[in-house]
Amino acid sequence: MDNNGFFFRYDYLDENRQIGEGLVGVHAVEIQDSSQSREMAAAFDALFANSAAETKTTTEKGFIDGFAKQVGDIGSIMIAILTAVLFTILLVVANTMAQAVRERTSELAVLKTLGFSSARILVLVPCRISVHRRRRRRVGVGAGLAHRPAGRSDRRSPEHLRAAEA
Predict the structure, then answer these.
(1) Angle at 47 between CA 43 and CA 53, to 5 degrees
(2) Do residues 121 and 112 touch, judged by C-beta distance below 8 A?
(3) Does a structural domain hold residue 83?
(4) Alpha-carbon torsion, ordered 41, 45, 47, 52, to 10 deg
(5) Which of 43, 105, 111, 166 is buried deepest, with most CB atoms within 10 A?
(6) Rounded to two decimals, what is the model's pTM?
């Protein structure tokens, strides 16, 4: 049984069409010898030449490519979407950084009052962030190790690796 087809009453479809009533959109023909596909295509197109319903015979791949081109250049659409997403992420990061600076304005003012130069503050702020990041990393790794199942080692010994190679 062929599950690739869909059968229906054409007259029901045709009576509700807005344009092309009484016309057929696609004829699918399977030929036995693929080396004769060009001759067969020319013969089909010659049958309907200079008629009200001229044909344009193409392969199935060509039909699918033509259908995709009707939608638009999919590659350009994807690039446009990805560019918009990247730009949005950039705006979110910039807003977060600006908000972080606004929250630290009073701290920066205290440092300036104590006599720190702008260059020194510019060096201290990333250092402070780095120290906090290292602290959070240590806490996270420690918590992960504490909750690891007992008796299980994720590291492989050199003997184990040599046995796997043999």
Answers:
(1) 125
(2) yes
(3) yes
(4) 150
(5) 111
(6) 0.42
- How far, in whole angstroms, is CA 47 from its chain's centroid? 44
Alpha carbons 163 and 165: distance in angstroms, whole number: 5
C-alpha–C-alpha distance, residues 105 and 17, integer Å = 67
- What's the mean pLDDT when you consider all of the chain? 82
How many CB atoms are located within 10 Å of the residue 49 CB?
A: 9
The domain in which residue 44 lies consists of: 10-71
CA distances from 94 to 29, 97, 98, 122 (A): 58, 5, 6, 17
Give the tens place of pLDDT for each residue, 50-94.
887 788 888 888 888 887 777 777 788 899 999 999 999 999 999
What pLDDT is attached to residue 83? 97
Lowest-pLDDT range of 9-13, 22-26, 116-120: 22-26
Q: Do residues 116 and 124 make contact, with C-beta atoms less than 8 angstroms apart? A: yes
* Residue at a domain's end among 71, 90, 113: 71
Q: Tell whether 165 is covered by a domain.
A: no
Total residues belonging to the chain? 166
Pick left, alpha or beta for residue 33 (phi over 0 → left; psi -120 to 50 → alpha; otherwise beta).
beta
